[in-house]
Amino acid sequence: MGDWLLSIAAMAGMVIWSLLVRDGRISLAGFGVALWFPISIGLYRVLLRWLPMIGGVYACPVRATSQQQREITAGCLLTAAFSMLCLACMPAPIAAANILALNFACLAALFDRIAGWLPNHVLIPMLLAGLLAGALRGGANAAILGAAASWGAAVLALLFLSVSLRANLLSGDDIAMAAACGAWVGIGDLSIFLSVTGFLYWASCVAVRHVRAPDWGRLDGPERIRMQPTGPSFALGLAITLLLHGVPGLPNWVYRIAAH
Questions:
Q1: pTM of the predicted model, to two decimals?
Q2: φ, ψ (nearest 5 deg) of residue 180
Q3: Smaller CB count within 10 Å for the chain: N or C?
Q4: Angle at CA 70, nearest 5°, toward 67 and 73?
Q5: 232-259 tens-digit pLDDT
Q6: Which H or E run includes 166?
Q7: Distance between CA atoms of 70 and 76, rounded to whole angstroms?
Q8: CA-CA distance, 105 to 126, in Å (whole number)?
Q9: Which among 209, 39, 215 has a CA at the least distance from the CA of 117?
């Protein structure tokens, strides 16, 4: 199935779902997600071509390959799917805020996956939006603590890996994305987010190791270390955590499973 046919089928499904929803605000938001889906594909392709050149990663704009274009479409489709799940599981204002977070995270993950770079042009607005959303929901302290604790956890994890592998793996980009995601999940759900993200990253490393040789890491050291991009794991971990928070009683169920 071609990308354009997949996009049309996905849009049709979103529109049908929006028509069947009885809540007017959720239905309107569903139409917005359906409309934003193809726009996001085109916008992300443009940003992924030009922003790395502006940021000094590439000397000239690089057109995405067919494989990279499919990855962009898949990322936008996954974001749209999580967006519709948020609309189905939580009030429209909270869902709308979470949809914004999901799009920030998707764009950052695509940059890390395709360009090997997490731009502050995306991460700083994502962090500020997360803090603002926390303040509007009456949880400013939780958002600030979540960002700070996630930042600290990322620093400790990268320090541990650097010492274990005898290579400098400290990355300000990865730490900034961890802080931005922490602001959105808050201190209350931070343990779920870190656990899910850590598991996803470990699983991706294991899967890639058995399927194909992963890309060489961007950092130099005594030995060049093979590293997988962390952005996709952060983005998917954020999406799962936000969705778990929106389903009543589900986070407690997850904690009970983890305890056993």
A1: 0.87
A2: -65, -45
A3: C
A4: 155
A5: 999 999 999 999 987 655 544 444 444 4
A6: none
A7: 10
A8: 8
A9: 215
